[in-house]
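[scheduler] slot 2 assigned
[scheduler] job type: sequence-to-structure, two independent chains
[scheduler] chain ordering preserved from manifest
[runner] begin chain α
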Amino acid sequence: MLIGEVARRSGVSARMLRHYDSLGLVRPTGRTEAGYREYSREDIRRIFHIESLRSLGLSLREVGQALDNPEFAPSELVDDLVERTRERIAGETELLARLRRIGAVGPADWEDVLRIVALLQALGSESVGQRQRAALSSVEDVPVPVEALVEAALNETDPNVAGALRWALARTGDGGLALLAEGLGSPAAEVRKRAVESIARIPNGAATALLQESLTDPDVPVRRSAALALGARGVADAVPTLVEMVVEGTNDVDAADALTVLARDSALAEQIATRLVACLADGTMESSARRRLTQALAEIPGNTASHALADLSHDDDRAVALTATYIAKLRNAQ
């Protein structure tokens, strides 16, 4: 079969068939009297084998090895192809995400596109300074893709940059809330905690509901971050976790401040005081924990807290007694 007919039947151009010939991949078995290439049935079968292997992503060199090297190990090459394909898909996925982010901002001209690209590159920079400057960029001067901000906030490990990213997200309103909610479902506790910290900066009911859901998170730091945010919003569900934080001495000052905010509700103030007093009555409680609980009673109004402080001023633990006496005097002087 002559080269033109082979090209028509196989779908491989005559030019590519000549290239295969020059590389030694497929050399026609014969020649006509006029010197034209003449392909046998076996030659055509080899052409189809080549095209099949090329469709898997093999280079022509790898195709030649696969067909001609008797020691060739297909499994190793397939594993390599799988890895290369994964890398290519990851690269294409990243490109697609970047294009979608740029498109979502709605750039007016190429100058806008270039500024957005520069911002996205800075958000992904290894330099802490560059990431922070990108987060603090004015949304008026450089439109910030919300999706990119959320991704950066959920992955940022530097506390200063993370704070700047949360500020930038808060300025966008609740546009990133749905994406942050997805972050709450991450298998990584650190990501869930960053999601909670970002949601805490968004002052609306939907954000509050997400924070309340996080009070049941299996990771303790996630629950505590949610409780601090909810305490500042006056949500009573946060009380048990906040009291636990006081007992264990983890961000206990912040937790006590949150309890103070919640205690502005007189009915809730009595509940908080009752819970603190119940913890103080635990005979196995360490002295340092009892002192923290006593200090937490200082800003809790109501009779329950006042009576507890009066009793604690005679406590067997001198440090607790002195603390309670001092706090009681301050309360009486007000």
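[runner] end chain α
[runner] begin chain β
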Amino acid sequence: MIIALCLVAPFVAMLWVGSYAKTDPTFIGIPFFYWYQMLWVPISTALTMLAYQLWKRDQRARKGANGGAVK
């Protein structure tokens, strides 16, 4: 469930355009509309990495619980 949330969050944030379709506040002269989207690039990367690490940990736990056989 946490893995799915990590992967879905960036899509929801980017598809909900009404939440960031404005110019203020600006950041170093860049309107909010643009810097908000640019901010999601590293956030999406971090969430994807977290989801992958959680998935790997889950796979190792399943492998250990099943005596080496992954179902």
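[runner] end chain β
[qc] chain β: The longest helix spans residues 32-65.
[scheduler] slot 2 released
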